[in-house]
Amino acid sequence: MKATLYEALGIKQLASEEEVRAALRGLIRKYYAKTRDGQGNVEEALRFINHASRILSDPDHRLHYDKELAVTSEATTEQRIAHFVSNVAGTVGETATRDDVIEIGDEKALTVPSDSPEKNPHHPGLTERVASMGRSTLGQLALCVFFGAFIAAAIVFVTPADAVLVAKQVLVWLTLSLLALALVYGVVHGLAWIRQRRISPEPALVPQTDLAILNWRREKSVFLGTDTPQEDASWIFQLRMAELERAKAGRTSEPRPWNRLAARLFDYSIWGLVLALLLSALHSAGMVSDDTAFWVGHPLFAPILITLSWVPIEALLIASLQLTPGKWLFGIYLQFSISDAYARRDVRAQLRRALRRSFRVWWEGLACGFPLLTPILVAVAYEKIAQRGETDWDFAEDCLVTHSPPGVLNSITGVVGLAAMLWLYGVAWHEPMADSITAAKNAVVAWVPSPPSLMPRGFQGDVGKISAIAKGIGTSLQGPDVSVTDSANDVDTTALFAERQARLALLRGEGPRMLQAGNWRRATEICRAWSDLEFWNAEPWRCLGYSLQAQGFHQDAINAFRKAAQYDPTDRSLESAIDKSQRGIVADFLNRYRR
Question: Model pTM?
């Protein structure tokens, strides 16, 4: 008996629609964009995919095909002869129509209604042209220059005056973030590897099946059926032209998860810069308050807003241009309804599919953009692409992702642009992130009680000294006869001294630490409080001056430095700090004058 379409696809006859679609998608990913294993003719494989999808994607065609299989496998010899005559009449004589009825006994076994609506005669997705936006050298250069100029302008706008100190802090944050991401990916990869070893692999298409698919017309090794849609010469010509164009562009359907991740990061980053400029304009106009601007731009909430607002923008770009800026730079192309020959392909249907896919990416692939969960789901999606060749949202929306070489100019623009935007977001987010970490630490310290035994030895000694001094003062002033009330007052005074000393110890440690960590706003608050309690000491004034200078408040910094020089005249570094702030005042004046 001849092989059936189900046997050629490697699935059972009672397979569900999802299993049929998965089998067709597997063949399309292998043969659609210039097969890499060198087996057989790509055109023959695509023609078979067209034939199989038109029969198995339509319930009426599939039901009729299943009835024919039942006839040929279970009917008697006379019934098979009658079926063969009907088959010859429908294929050779070209006189049979969809009204043909094959009689088996006294029943009408196979009846195809003649009033069924005519659908797409061929699979249009296999002849779809690749995106050509910016394909010319001039257009490619113009787009790359536009992206580069936009990112460069953002860098000039965001970079602070003390860029060297900021760069050190951002480098520390980036190093810690990369180590954390590497740890997350290692854990996810290890779990995926263990799970893959425990689960037995599903049977794949054997080479004999591939050979049957490639020789399906020449050897008639696949059972076609009597109601098969006929091919058209113009469609075959379009198929060949589309395949030549894909081969010329170097397009391949092999999975490249790193390209997809880089393209998505570029899209989110460039869209985040646009939203940042919009927020800055609204804040300058007084339409957005300081607190709202702070929390909207906070690194814990900004990624959620950026990724969510990008969902409709991405859907519109894909439905209209089939591209986004990141996908264009890294050579990524999307096609919807690739395994369904009868799917609607108008703009509205494409927009709905693109919107559903973008939302699923935001929900399932990015955890709604929440920074603490996004790396985990991104690593999970990478493992799925590496193992199955596609993600869940690609399969759900029947989307095929193909790739082409991005080119030298696009690659340089994409990689340098990602690095530059990584610097921008690091500069913008490292201070509020440090504030959040400090606030969380202070909250934990305030919540957890600290027993006296855990206090530093020096702090305990200071408290003891203050208590002894207070007691000596009270004894010398009041004499040997001290009443009960005076003793209570001495206890209160000792407690006040101890509380003040404890606060000073906390400020002495936190102020320089915040200054060294680059959290200048918090350092200013701590050092100012420190200078109020210990105004005769040069250290709090020096700390206050450097924190104010880092924020650009040069006149206040000069005043703080002069206070420090008053209490420590031997410190020569204060003179250079004052000179630096004076130069900063001149630079600010020149910048305002130029504007």
Answer: 0.68
